[in-house]
Amino acid sequence: MKQITVTVNGQPHSAEVEPRLLLVHLIRENLNLTGTHIGCDTSSCGACTVLLDGKSVKSCTVLAVQANGKSVSTVEGLCAPGAALNPLQEGFKENHGLHCGFCTPGMMMRATELLEHNPDPTEDEIRWGISGNLCRCTGYNNIVKAILYAGAKMRGEEPASTEPQFV
Amino acid sequence: MWVASRELATRWCVANSRQALSLVLDKISTLVWCLIQPMTFKNMAKKLLGDPINRVDGALKATGRARYSADIKRPGMLHGVLVMSTIANGKITAIDTADALKVPGVVNVMSHQNAPKLAGMDKNKPSEIATDRVLHVFQDDLVHYNNQPIAMVLAETLEQATEGASLVRVTYQTQPVKLPLPAGKADMSTPKQMPRVDDQVDTKRGDLAAGLAAAINRMEETYTTPTMNHNALEPHALLAYWEGDKLTMYNATQGISGCQKRVAEIFGMPKENVRVITQFLGGGFGSKGTTFSHVMLAPMAAKLTGKPVRLVLKREQMFGMVGNRSATVQRLNLATGKDGKLLATAHHSITQTSDFDEFAEPAGTITRMLYACPNLDTTHKFIRANIGTPAPMRAPGEAPGVFALESAIDEMAAQLRMDPLAFRLANYAETDPNKDKPFSSKSLRECYRQGAERFGWSKRPAQPRSLKNGNYLRGMGMATTVYPMNRGESTALVRLKPDGTVQVETATQDLGTGTFTIMTQIAAEVFGLSPDQVTLSAGDSIYPTSSVSGGSRNTASTGSAVTQAAQEVLKKARQMALKDPKSPLFNVAEAEIVVQKGGQLQQKSNPKVGEALTSLLKRNGNKPLEATVQSKQGDEKGKYSMNAFGAVFAEVEVDELLGEVRVTRLLGSFAAGRIVNLKTARSQVLGGMVWAVSMALHEKTVFDPRNNRVMNANLAEYHVPVNADIQEIDGFFIEEADDIVNPAGVKGIGEIGVVGTVSAIANAIYHATGRRFRDLPITVDKVLA
């Protein structure tokens, strides 16, 4: 067993963990933060994406002990309970950027980092930037719109209409 | 507003997401969240294209607070990890669990040697219900396919159970392996029935030989599609626990009521003793519509150990035991006369099933009705292979079958030097030629017209290989898309309360498509209320039985039940008003009383006369009015052919040096009856069209020919499109009123986005390159060959 301290969404957590414990299981089982999902076990789908010291990682292929002394951000940290949705969350909700919602938390964590590095991305940059995160429901277009919406809001601009285009 | 099961531990109230997510923890109560935007009602008649409101669960999903089946915990819970077979046919001769049991935390290993015997195993046989499958639940030592569950390790943590599972040693006696298509074409037989039991296995119309003889142009080609796996993002998962003889399961299922029934049947217990809860579901696409073996295994293990058991499948375990889309080999013959009209059509399909169960992929059923043609033969045969039994996968039969048919139609149009759209119009079916019945509605001509116009189809040069974009050859293709209206049995309770709010109860699950939102909207519309005045209690078998979410049927089924129950309540309110001397509507004829926005009853011919539903109820005992309606198909099915139709247009670019195909533009026009919510509906068809990109260019399950083990059982090697694979996609709906199909007036939109789009892409690749690709997926190696 190994003693680790990980700061999750700003709160330090200490735990005795087995060296084989995955970061995603630390988050889901030990800390009960079930917004981070497990989709594929092989870092292919991105449902488990979190930020580790600000960088997006797939937490199913990071060991909990590797996060010792580091800070982790999960979807639960995007807005405090009771607070307004952050621009990305609002973008996904308003643009119907989610159906089943299983990929959504990972998608938003990846997009958080993307927008931090590139506050005004083109549609193409978004499509490439989130290609490590699979969605099987939405057809992706509304996810792109959600991220464009969030980018505009974060820059203080008026986001494009969220209504369907043709009707 | 939507309320999930009452016993759930948390109470959420999201009153207005624009302001705040107000979160109240309350141990006893319910999950409640209210709708966000205040709605305006322009018109109280049923809208053909419904308000594009945001989904009711959007904020919950965007904050990571929606709970999926694998998120549920229970004190003392054990984690189960399955041990899978490594041979495809044979018998287990020994299972050595000694090393596994030595792992600290491992409490038991369940296998056929110690598994509880199930009382209802006489029901574990090919069923007359298309979605009930033969299960492998450790009752014997036989292995029928590779990756079949044969043991389950139970431990205090997932890590311990995983380690234990790696240490279970199994020895086998092996038998020769029956291969899937295309190799395994021996042992071919005719299925007893199709998944939709009304569909005939084989059909004949007119005289095919005479039609072929009279024709001027003929084509005959074979089209092949591979085995595919559903791969919803959420792995199959459940938590099961017993309280005496009562079983509760938090299970990721597309059919709560069907799951409850099947589990009760196999365990040999009354249905009332099984409770199934699905708060949120992470997609399913058909693989969670059937109650597969794992759903029995977790409660069995819970019985064996006396503890709650959580079982979550690993991604690689989803390639075998939870269904697949059958591979197909389809031979198409088309023949036309000099006017370009079809004289003969033959569609012969070979699909595959497992060696212990029957599922016949209905590849040829659409060919019987899509175009007018006097002489037609269709047949279905399948082979038996040592694989897991196939299951419905988004547009089962229609997706591979229409790929073949619409490719053949395109080939015939090219042979005739006719525009592909003009050829389709020349063979337009005014009535259903298979059933010889009128369509309840068919707006396909309008789909063709508006779709072609918006896409710019008139700019398509007739000659293939005549468009370029730099190094890329560009092509345009189109196809017809179609999906039958399916409707199952659903029951809903609707309760109008004196405070003017409405409660709806029905067991239904939300696959992710927006069912909870749609049911809320449907009830609100009947009463002239805004959706935030409606509370939906669903996702739990304690509520009235509802249909499976599959075959695009849930809005037609459960939506109809909600519509009818709400109308029944409204009728009671009308009668209450006309009999109440204190009501302004006293003695007004019932048919004269209509409901207006805000829940106001009104005299149709004199809108000034009326009162609010709330004042009526308050004066009459201050009690709620309620009705429960069981809703199912009537005799309309015998009188009409009911289908959604559409037209899909595709533009592709092909780099012949690299073999790369890009789908640069997709446009679908759809006529699917009433569209309840334009926002969720449009997103559904876009998602379906991406499934078609996936099927046309990416997806294929690859079997090792030595032992039928899937070689790409992971999301790295089983290819589905990522965002960068997708470019411009759009879809729109034609207004279509259909009062015949069902009380909700809807035809279903879950599958129609996929069906024709696959061939529209293949036809565009033909137009770009001049080469016809008849084997899916159209990958780099095939383009370079």
From TrEMBL, chain A:
Gene3D superfamilies the UniProt entry points to: 3.10.20.30, [2Fe-2S]-binding domain (1.10.150.120)
Keyword Oxidoreductase listed? The answer is yes
Q: Which UniProt keywords apply?
A: 2Fe-2S, Iron, Iron-sulfur, Metal-binding, Oxidoreductase
Question: Per the database record, which ranges form the 2Fe-2S ferredoxin-type domain?
Answer: 2-78
Reading the lineage from the top rank, the first entry is: Bacteria
Q: From the UniProt record, which GO molecular function terms apply?
A: 2 iron, 2 sulfur cluster binding; metal ion binding; oxidoreductase activity
Under InterPro entries, the record lists: 2Fe-2S-bd, 2Fe-2S-bd_dom_sf, 2Fe-2S_ferredoxin-like_sf, 2Fe-2S_ferredoxin-type, Beta-grasp_dom_sf, Diverse_Oxidoreductases
Know the name of this protein?
A: (2Fe-2S)-binding protein
